[in-house]
Amino acid sequence: MTPPTDQYDEMAAEYAEHSAAGLANAHYDRPAILALAGDLTGLRVLDAGCAAGHLARLLAEGGAASVTGIDISAAMVALARERCPAGTFHRADLAAPLDLFEDGAFDLVTASLVLHYLAD
Ligand SMILES: C[S@@+](CC[C@H](N)C(=O)[O-])C[C@H]1O[C@@H](n2cnc3c(N)ncnc32)[C@H](O)[C@@H]1O
């Protein structure tokens, strides 16, 4: 289920701090996602539901040609831009068509801890 837009806006700073070093995020989730992603060299990566940009930054540092992040929370998008200056971030709803991107714009899509918000 999609949360109200401002749910993560209100907790953005707290989530960003928790996610930076929290056990589940920093030590299980992100390492698992990066292992699944494999060699990022030269890939155009979309991080769907990027939150505060922790994973986006690692993707960029891992050699991706470009990293684009989208999140429904404007506050998260602002934090992601600060954390990952190499990335490009947009406020967008994954429950709606992502018309802002051309078909074939990405080689890899990550969506970590996000899909449970989406009915479809
Ligand atoms: C649990 S956090 C996970 C964030 C990040 N991927 C991570 O692994 O730390 C869920 C994120 O999904 C975003 N989100 C939830 N529903 C969304 C939607 N419909 N479209 C875009 N982002 C959404 C929230 O704003 C929040 O930043």
UniProtKB/TrEMBL annotation:
InterPro entries: Methyltransf_25, SAM-dependent_MTases_sf. It comes from the Bacteria. Residues 45-119 form the Methyltransferase domain. Gene3D superfamilies: Vaccinia Virus protein VP39. The lineage of its organism: Bacteria, Bacillati, Actinomycetota, Actinomycetes, Kitasatosporales. The keyword Transmembrane does not apply. GO terms for molecular function: methyltransferase activity. Pfam families: Methyltransf_25. This is Methyltransferase domain-containing protein. Keywords: Methyltransferase, S-adenosyl-L-methionine, Transferase. CDD domains: AdoMet_MTases (cd02440). It comes from Streptomyces harbinensis. GO terms for biological process: methylation. Signal peptide: none annotated.
